[in-house]
């Protein structure tokens, strides 16, 4: 399933909405959106994953890429990840630096 990515800014939050599968084939599009979000200089980058059914290791690398791209002090939140996707993030230990929220 292809990945659909959108970016919007709501106040001091850059919101990236993902839908589909996040894997090696689709990660480059996500990376481009992360770079655009980082350019906005918001305090938070919120990655909404309600509609992400599968995330491969390339998705984890994308989250690390996001951490590297945003300025110091910018928080990254993953919102609405399914339990398998959230478990992948926790297993990799990324939940120590990226907030996971059910919202």
Characterize the structure shown.
The protein is an alpha/beta fold and 103 residues long. The chain has a single domain (8-101), classed as Transcription Regulator spoIIAA. It has three helices and five strands; from the N terminus they run E-E-H-E-H-E-H-E. The chain has a five-stranded mixed sheet. It is globular and about 30 Å long. It starts with a strand and ends with a strand. The model has no long low-confidence stretch (mean pLDDT 94).
How would you summarize the topology of this molecule?
Layout: E1 4-10, E2 13-22, H1 27-39, E3 44-55, H2 57-69, E4 75-79, H3 83-91, E5 99-101
Parallel strand pairs: 2-3, 3-4, 4-5
Antiparallel strand pairs: 1-2
Helix pairs in contact: 1-2
Number of domains: 1
The proportion of strand residues reads 35-45%
- Helix and strand composition category: alpha/beta
The 3D shape can be described as globular
| Low-confidence runs | none
Defining traits:
103 residues, alpha/beta, Transcription Regulator spoIIAA
Please outline what is shown here.
The protein has 103 residues and is of the alpha/beta class. It contains three helices and five strands. Helix 1 links the parallel strand 2 and strand 3.
